[in-house]
Amino acid sequence: MSKESVTPDKIDALARDAALADAKAKEKAQQTIRELASRQGIFLSSIQGLYEAAGKGLYSGITVPAINIRGITYHVARAVFRAALKNEVGAFIFEIARSEMGYTGQRPSEYVACVQAAAIREGFEGAVFLQGDHYQVNHNKYSTEPENELNAIKELIRESVAAGFLNIDIDASTIVDLSKKTLDEQQEKNCLVTAEMTKFIRSIEPKGVTISVGGEIGEVGKRNSTVEDLSAFMGGYLKRLGPNVKGISKISVQTGTTHGGVVLPDGSIANVEIDFKTLKELSKLAREEYGLCGAVQHGASTLPDEAFHHFPQVGTGEVHLATGFQNIIYESKYFPRELMDRINKQLSDKYVNERKQGETEEQFLYKTRKRAFGDFKTEMWNIPESNLKGIRDELEGRFSLLFQKLNVVETKDLVRKFVVK
Question: Over the stretch 346-397, which tens digit does the pLDDT of each residue have?
Fold first, then answer.
């Protein structure tokens, strides 16, 4: 396919095939997208160099947004790139969690292809960062069959890296044991597993690439992290990692958020108080003592607008954003009501066993509607283009606001300076 023949319609068709076609056609579309992206100067990269620069104090006051896209990925990514181009943003990440891959029906190669196709469609050039978010250890599976659970994560990492994910977040905070007496004992399994996964990633990373690896000390929705937790984890982790292996570049902490927010009986989201003082202390220690980019904040997308400018002010390295974008899609005036009605009916029927006692209909639907991105994947791709454009425009406005609040506007040159092509 020559450069002259790459029309918007053809990119749209390739993206659709990359997500919905049969296996053979899907693979062919994904390969074509990769070739076109390379021709346009789009390259998948690790954000390691940028984060190492932050750890050395070479820049500050920037919080990198990591954006989870659960559905109509090509269209949402187009909105991200439009906002990035408008604001000269280079420091932003596309990510998807281990759990999200399951309920949205998106494997790494498909996710990468949809993001690359969106970059081509919008005329973006330069580094694109793809991240495996919350490659999380399942506590119950680890308790009964630890080797099998860790091997499953390793296979997902292998698949992800092969697809172009050059940033991986390991989450073994689920096996932190708060019943233990000392912090070192509480973090022991977390240190052990995170070190093992780091070594595995280093063993398979492409030649000339240092994959950015993240660790996590506090499970989101549980008790808030402390500087003592961070010190205990890093001490144990570095000891198990050894002196000749490149370690993590960031550390995820808990400072008061919950994934998706706390849903009130009427379906609205409760106000959350972020402990910015602790977040500042954790980020400072992460940078100055361990050379990391700072602390990472999860579960932030449903926070009020006035909260976001605090993240760069307190030195937060990265912030993860997901459910808020899902809410914009579903609550948009452009999302077909007939489709939303069908989604709600199926959610009520199919996932009735997940309904908790005392939960209102609004709370139940809010909690489960993320699953509709997988169950209604084809139907969402078939939403009329005029409606999809309206949704993209709304999302673009949101991404622009967040880029400004997180102070990543005009970071294209910063990325060019520190990120290896």
Answer: 999 999 999 999 999 999 999 999 999 999 999 999 999 999 999 999 999 9
Angle at 327 between CA 322 and CA 331, to 5 degrees: 160
Task: CATH number of the domain at 135, please.
Answer: 3.20.20.70
Residue 67 pLDDT grade (very low, low, confident, very high; cuts 50, 70, 90): very high
Q: Are residues 325 and 354 in the same domain?
A: no
3-state secondary structure of 128: strand
252 and 185 within one domain = yes
The full length of the chain comes to: 421
Backbone torsions φ then ψ of 107, nearest 5 degrees:
-85, 165
Q: How does pLDDT run across 85-130, given as a tens digit for each residue? A: 999 999 999 999 999 999 999 999 999 999 999 999 999 999 999 9
Q: What is the spatial distance between Cα 372 and Cα 299, in angstroms, rounded to a whole number?
A: 20
Asked if residue 202 belongs to a domain, the reply is yes
Angle separating helix axes 108-122 and 8-20, nearest 10 degrees: 170
CA atoms within 13 A on the CB side of 284: 11
Say if 3 falls within a structural domain: no
User: Are the C-beta atoms of residues 274 and 255 closer than 8 Å to each other?
Assistant: yes
| Cα–Cα distances in angstroms (integers) from residue 341 to residues 251, 326, 347, 359, in the given order | 40, 16, 10, 20
**Residues 226, 363 within the same domain:** no
Buried b (16+ CB within 10 A) or exposed e, 19-28: bbbeeeebee
Whether 251 and 291 have beta carbons less than 8 Å apart is answered as no
Is residue 234 within 8 Å of residue 290, measured between CB atoms? yes
DSSP 3-state of 141: helix
Nearest-angstrom CA–CA distance, 201 and 185: 25
The DSSP element (H or E) to which 337 belongs, if any, is: helix 337-350
Cα 149 from Cα 119, distance rounded (Å):
35
Residue 4 lies in a domain: no
Alpha helices (H) in 43-92, listed in sequence order: 48-55, 73-87
User: Could you read off the pLDDT of 5-22 as tens digits, one per residue?
Assistant: 689 999 999 999 999 999
**Alpha-carbon span 11 to 39, nearest angstrom:** 14
